[in-house]
């Protein structure tokens, strides 16, 4: 900014005072600017760049389809606790989400229904830090109300004529279904293999299938639209859910804060109410 002319009669004194005042300011700027270059808050966007910044702005969360109900509730809690934030949720099969992330889809957080698809993201160098296990889930058999096909056990799913639907093998619930079938020595022949566990449940609730292998949490969320059958072989294929920030995320402060909510006491309470088990390590 152009300096105003010095008052007549005292030009030397005016010049001297200005020069003394500028030096501390210049020194302060030189001290602060390197810190900004090293990772201060982004200006103009409201998005923080470190986990210690106050959360603000929008984040995009890619989450396994089985997390839909719990994460919708947690997103609302997060926005209420951090005014000025918003959470955009995208749900799909974990394998599809991992592929989208690998192809450059913009997201800040990834929550997978298994460690295998999370490892794909890690191996591609797209995870920001070490993923944290925050929940577990176990398969159950979903049947339409009234259970018209009379399914009572896992071996019933191999009966001739049973219209069984499962997830595709690359999807966590499909990989788990394959493991429980192998543990039981059964060969399952599904009439349809879906890319998300919610699609399997949809086939059951619509009456298109006699039974489907889904998570216990999905049956609980379905309410009266489906009945659930537990089976002991499910213990051989418990899925662990990890969560991570993404290296390409544009709002790391809010991403870290959301992950802290999910893994913290409040998030764990919501997940437990939805039927998830604790994540452990």
Overall description:
The protein is of the alpha/beta class. It has helices spanning 11-37, 68-81, 94-102, 115-123, 172-184, 197-205, 216-222, 252-263, 265-273, and strands at residues 57-64, 85-92, 109-111, 127-137, 139-143, 164-167, 192-194, 211-215, 227-229, 239-246, 277-278. The strands form two sheets. Strands 2-1-3-10-4-11 form a six-stranded mixed beta sheet. Strands 7-6-8-5-9 form a five-stranded mixed beta sheet. Helix 5 (172-184) links the parallel strand 6 (164-167) and strand 7.
List keywords for this structure.
single chain; 281 residues; alpha/beta; five-stranded mixed β-sheet; 9 helices; disordered N terminus
- Largest sheet: spatial strand order: 2-1-3-10-4-11
Order of helices and strands: HEHEHEHEEEHEHEHEEHHE
- Biggest sheet character: 6 strands, mixed
Shape: elongated
Tally of helical segments: 9
The helix fraction, in percent, is: 25-40%
Low-confidence stretches: 1-51
Secondary-structure content class = alpha/beta
Work out the radius of gyration: 27 Å
Summed up:
With 281 residues, the protein is α/β, with parallel strands linked by helices. It is built from 9 helices and 11 strands.
Task: Describe how the helices and strands are arranged.
Elements: H1 11-37, E1 57-64, H2 68-81, E2 85-92, H3 94-102, E3 109-111, H4 115-123, E4 127-137, E5 139-143, E6 164-167, H5 172-184, E7 192-194, H6 197-205, E8 211-215, H7 216-222, E9 227-229, E10 239-246, H8 252-263, H9 265-273, E11 277-278
Parallel strand pairs: 1-2, 1-3, 6-7, 6-8
Antiparallel strand pairs: 3-10, 4-10, 4-11, 5-8, 5-9
Helix pairs in contact: 2-8, 3-4, 8-9
């Amino acid at each position: 900014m152009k300096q105003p002319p010095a008052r007549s009669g005292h030009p030397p004194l005016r010049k001297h005072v200005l020069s003394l005042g500028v030096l501390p300011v210049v020194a302060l700027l030189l001290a602060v600017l390197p810190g900004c270059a090293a990772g201060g808050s982004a200006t103009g966007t409201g998005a923080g760049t470190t986990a210690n910044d106050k959360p603000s702005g929008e984040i995009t969360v890619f989450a396994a389809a089985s997390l839909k109900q719990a994460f919708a509730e947690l997103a609302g809690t997060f926005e209420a606790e951090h005014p000025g934030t918003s959470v955009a949720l995208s749900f799909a099969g974990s394998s599809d989400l991992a592929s989208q992330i690998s192809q450059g889809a913009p997201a800040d957080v990834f929550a997978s229904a298994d460690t295998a698809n999370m490892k794909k993201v890690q191996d591609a160098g797209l995870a920001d830090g070490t993923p944290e296990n925050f929940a577990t889930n176990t398969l159950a058999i979903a049947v339409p109300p009234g259970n018209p096909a009379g399914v009572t056990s896992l071996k019933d799913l191999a009966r001739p004529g049973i219209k069984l639907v499962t997830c595709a093998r690359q999807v966590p619930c499909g990989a788990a279904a394959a493991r429980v079938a192998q543990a039981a020595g059964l060969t399952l022949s599904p009439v349809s293999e879906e890319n998300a566990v919610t699609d399997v449940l949809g086939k059951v609730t619509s009456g298109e299938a006699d039974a489907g292998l889904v998570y216990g949490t999905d049956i609980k969320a379905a309410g009266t639209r489906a009945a659930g059958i537990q089976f002991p072989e499910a213990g051989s294929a418990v899925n662990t859910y990890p969560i991570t920030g993404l290296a390409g995320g544009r709002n790391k402060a809010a991403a870290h804060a959301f992950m802290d909510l999910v893994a913290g006491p409040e998030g764990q309470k919501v997940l437990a109410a939805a039927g998830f088990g604790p994540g452990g390590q």
